[in-house]
């Protein structure tokens, strides 16, 4: 008996569960690698990390999709200067917003009426929207899909993990933290979450690790540093690198111009590129 067999009849004008599942698989099979950017708590720079890693891959010539499923705090449109963009329907689904010729973006922010609008949805509605973004968007052929998840281990990241692992390969999670102890404790929960759902942990990034002087570029450890690497070693997860606090990073996000696009020669941009390069295994342009 087919796993899609159901005793519940579907109206003739509505796709069946089998048809929806097949469409999801068809979409995801055209994406070579899916990378979830996660964090145990908010305020650690997860979205800026997702944006800059996506752009680093796009600058290297890969076809990249950036999916923002931080439904209650979508910041990707602002960081990319796409605040006024809206989604359009194509012949086979929603059309993502093009940031570059080889970088496409989807965010719930494109569906809201303005920056002050709040999304007040419960779990099932949020789950349905995330599945729609993966199933009904014309992503096309992608080398990478970077997914900016909300912080924590709730409905949204769980839906993304379970959907991306359903019959697909080459998925994994990158977990962003800061050196503070309270953030590091939550990183362990995120790693446990991924392992419980059998999502490979590609590595940990320690953000806001030291302060990069805007004049000389020297990085000074005004707070703790190295905690992310220690957690990675303790939890037997790869450590991908440190990103220092940099005033230019804040200005880049506020101006809608990603840091790696305007500070391309900096040591921090080079760190982003090295992290992105670690994802390029088994990918042919």
Automatic annotation (TrEMBL):
The protein in question is named Iron-sulfur cluster carrier protein
What GO cellular-component annotations does this UniProt entry give?
Answer: cytosol
Q: Which family does it belong to?
A: Belongs to the Mrp/NBP35 ATP-binding proteins family.
| Functional summary from the UniProt entry | Binds and transfers iron-sulfur (Fe-S) clusters to target apoproteins. Can hydrolyze ATP.
Could you give the subunit structure recorded for this chain?
Homodimer.
Give this protein's Gene Ontology molecular function annotations.
Answer: ATP binding; ATP hydrolysis activity; ATP-dependent FeS chaperone activity; iron-sulfur cluster binding; metal ion binding
An example Pfam family from this entry, by short name, is: ParA
């Amino acid at each position: 008996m087919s796993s899609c067999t159901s005793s519940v009849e579907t109206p003739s004008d509505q796709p069946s569960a089998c048809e929806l599942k097949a469409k999801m698989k068809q979409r995801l099979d055209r994406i070579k690698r899916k990378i979830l950017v996660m964090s145990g708590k908010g305020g650690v720079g997860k979205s800026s990390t997702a944006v800059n890693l996506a752009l680093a891959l796009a600058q290297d010539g890969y076809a990249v999709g950036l999916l923002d499923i931080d439904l209650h705090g979508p910041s990707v449109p602002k960081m990319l200067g796409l605040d006024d963009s809206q989604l359009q329907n194509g012949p086979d689904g929603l059309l993502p917003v093009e940031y570059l010729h080889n970088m496409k973006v989807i965010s719930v922010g494109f569906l809201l009426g303005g920056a002050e609008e709040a999304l007040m949805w419960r779990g099932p509605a949020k789950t349905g929207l995330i599945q729609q973004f993966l199933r009904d968007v014309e992503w096309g052929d992608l080398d990478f899909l970077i997914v900016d998840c909300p912080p924590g281990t709730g409905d949204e990241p769980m839906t993304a993990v379970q959907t991306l692992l359903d019959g697909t390969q080459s998925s994994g999670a990158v977990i962003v933290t800061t050196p503070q102890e309270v953030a590091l404790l939550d990183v362990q929960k995120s790693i446990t979450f991924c392992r419980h759902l059998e999502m490979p942990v590609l590595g940990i990034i320690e953000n806001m690790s030291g302060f990069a002087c805007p004049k000389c570029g020297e990085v000074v450890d005004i707070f703790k540093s190295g905690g992310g690497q220690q957690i990675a070693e303790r939890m037997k997860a790869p450590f991908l690198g440190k990103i220092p606090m940099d005033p230019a990073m804040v200005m880049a996000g506020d101006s809608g111009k990603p840091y790696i696009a305007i500070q391309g020669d900096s040591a921090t941009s080079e760190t982003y590129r090295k992290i992105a390069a670690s994802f390029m295994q088994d990918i042919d342009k």
